[in-house]
Design goal:
This protein is of the alpha/beta class and 365 residues long. The chain is 36% helix and 21% strand. It has helices at 47-55, 61-86, 118-125, 134-138, 148-156, 192-201, 220-227, 230-233, 247-250, 259-279, 299-308, 327-340, 348-351, and strands spanning 9-14, 21-30, 33-43, 95-98, 101-106, 111-115, 129-131, 162-167, 170-176, 183-189, 289-292, 314-316, 361-363. A hairpin with a 2-residue loop joins strand 2 and strand 3. It is globular and about 55 Å long. Mean pLDDT is 94; it is low at 1-6.
């Protein structure tokens, strides 16, 4: 393989709420022009332990420290795999941006905890590592999430109103308008509850293309119960995670319906909460809506969302030439670039922080 042009190269590392893989993006950034060179999914060796934390947040300090270190080594190995693939040396990468693995997000406390210590990543890879991005925003009264709308604005720079939906374990919405600061917030569950149900009841990691959910209609009564949760009607700014929308949350709304009906209903829950979120943004009719994240491949979810938002054309970011899976890892590379250059990240309009600020810290090899 030919060696990549090494000018302004960054690596972004992201492990989302599903913890199913470490997303690795090799990105070039020049004058805020962001281009994806390559993207790989690297196995997350600690998915089982991380998912246990979603259902039971109790963990000993020794267990936490062990997971913190082991996950950091996993992140470092993922970055090194990208270097090896492209024949790159550590000094050819300007910086790594590592989001870390969120294990607890508590905006009401002004704190968000990510593990996978960046010092280990920096030392093992030999590359400056930027990380711990959320707390700077929270220290200014912000939610510390989501970051996605700011990145969507940076990478798309749309000339007309545009909506972007990221459907990971949790879903979030971005509303982008020319010459206006970006807007956005977490709408609620994305794939996480559906994935857990598939793993528990159907012995598969997720509902491929929504093939199971499409087999039966959702239970409208149970759906109404789920949508009665106050988070959905809470005004923005707001953010959430799997420390809220998890099996304990779901158990508050018991149902006797079959696993298949439950799955279909959870699919519709993601649809309804996203559609309601978008309606609060008052975007013009025919505003395009681009889907990214793992949910971009859930055909049933996208078809249902198109029915629900009939005036907004639903497409994936593939239509923009951007891999739907790569966007969050690309965002981490962009956050590293912002940190290296001391550039404030425009989150004030999204998170409610007192001002835009430089996010995160730097760890040197």
């Amino acid at each position: 393989m030919n060696k990549t042009n090494t000018q302004n190269l960054f690596i972004g590392l992201m492990s989302g709420t599903s913890a199913d893989a470490i997303d690795v993006a090799l990105v070039t950034i020049d004058n805020q022009s962001i281009r994806l060179i390559d993207f790989i999914d690297y196995p997350n060796e600690h998915q089982i332990d991380l998912c246990k934390l979603n259902s039971d947040a109790q963990i000993s300090l020794k267990q936490l420290a062990k997971l913190h270190a082991h996950l950091a080594n996993n992140f470092a190995d993922a970055a090194l795999a990208m270097l090896t693939k492209h024949g790159l040396e550590p000094e050819e990468i300007t910086a790594i941006g590592s989001h870390g693995q969120t294990i607890f997000h508590a905006p009401e406390l002004g704190m968000s905890l990510q593990i996978g210590h960046p010092a280990i990543i920096a030392k093992k890879t030999g590359i400056i590592t930027a990380a711990d991005f959320r707390v700077d925003d929270m220290a200014l009264g912000g939610q510390g999430a989501p970051f996605a709308p700011a990145f969507h604005q940076a990478i798309l720079n749309p000339k007309t109103p545009t909506l972007v939906i990221n459907i990971g374990g949790i879903a979030n919405v971005s509303y982008l308008q020319p010459k206006q600061p970006p807007l956005g917030f977490d709408s609620g569950p994305g794939n996480a509850l559906m994935d857990e149900l598939c793993q528990r009841n159907f012995n598969q990691a997720y509902d491929l293309a929504g093939q199971l959910a499409q087999q039966t209609p959702p239970d409208t009564s149970w759906l109404a119960d789920l949508l009665s949760d106050p988070y959905f009607s809470q005004p923005s700014p707001k953010s959430t995670g799997r420390e809220y929308f998890n099996q304990a949350w779901l158990s508050r709304y018991p149902t006797s319906r079959s696993a298949l009906t439950q799955l279909s209903t959870l699919n519709q829950l993601t649809v309804e909460s996203l559609a309601s979120a978008i309606e609060t943004l008052n975007s013009p009719a025919q505003t395009p809506c681009y889907i990214c994240g793992g949910g971009a491949y859930n055909t049933t979810l996208l078809k249902r969302l198109q029915v629900r938002l009939h005036t907004h054309p639903i497409k994936t970011t593939e239509h923009l030439g951007i891999n739907p899976d790569a966007i969050e890892a690309m965002m981490c590379a962009w956050l590293a670039c912002n940190r290296i250059t001391n550039l404030p990240t425009p989150l004030k309009s999204i998170t409610g922080a007192g001002k835009n600020t430089v996010l995160g810290g730097l760890w040197h090899p």
